[in-house]
Amino acid sequence: MRAIIVDDEPLAREELQEMLQSYPEIEVVAQFGNAIECLKHLKQLQAEVLFLDIEMPQISGLELANMIDSDNAPAIVFVTAYDQFALDAFEQNAVDYLLKPIDSERLCKSIKRLKERLPSIKQTEADAAVNHSYQTMLKEQQLRLIPCYYQQRVKLIRLEDIEHASSDISGVHVATENGTYHTQLTLKVLEDKSPLLRCHRQHLVNVEAISEISLEDNGGAVLFTKSGAQLPVSRRYFKAIKEHFGL
């Protein structure tokens, strides 16, 4: 199992990696000190498991889990300093959790759970139900910040500042009144976990940023945003736009 450790404490990362060396089935392919760097490299590393600290600056472990496309999500083991009572919800919904400081016997139990949950291993009905509950929990959570990349910098953009998001051959881009930025998040994640509304296969729009709708003869439309951008609306998605504005 290819694994990534994400924790803002270097000592905690090193201790966990040292403990994982006792398990030949686990290959730690990377460590990251924050969620943004992990998200940037996650697809390339093709990890099957994330050991993910919950409390980290800027973007928490829970928020990072919420940013990962569920269709390609690795198994996630939360690592946390919360006490046992605060972890009851995670026990029901997460793949697993480890309580800091990590106990070797508890880690062994977690590795066993991971092996049972991997797609290559047939899930029991109970496992499938827990995984479905976990994915439902993540889907219900809304994103707070969108990590974007611009000129060797990472910019955290608030959802309310986004006018629209689009995808092309170079990736996914979010546009604000101050510029356009690349993000590692997929349109599917942005659609599922934010108020952005899909208007076209390749476009999402913030309905609060729409200033004008031009109707087309083919049953579609063109949206004009407050900054002057033009977005196509296909017939398939026009109904939701019209319903929002009571058209």
UniProtKB/TrEMBL annotation:
Pfam families: LytTR (PF04397), Response_reg (PF00072). Residues 146-247 form the HTH LytTR-type domain. SMART domains: LytTR, REC. It comes from the Bacteria. Keywords: Phosphoprotein, Two-component regulatory system. GO terms for molecular function: DNA binding; phosphorelay response regulator activity. Residues 2-115 form the Response regulatory domain. PROSITE patterns: HTH_LYTTR (PS50930), RESPONSE_REGULATORY (PS50110). CDD domains: REC_LytTR_AlgR-like (cd17532). The modification 4-aspartylphosphate is found at D53. PANTHER family: STAGE 0 SPORULATION PROTEIN A HOMOLOG (PTHR37299:SF1), TRANSCRIPTIONAL REGULATOR-RELATED (PTHR37299). This is Putative response regulator. It comes from Agarivorans albus MKT 106.
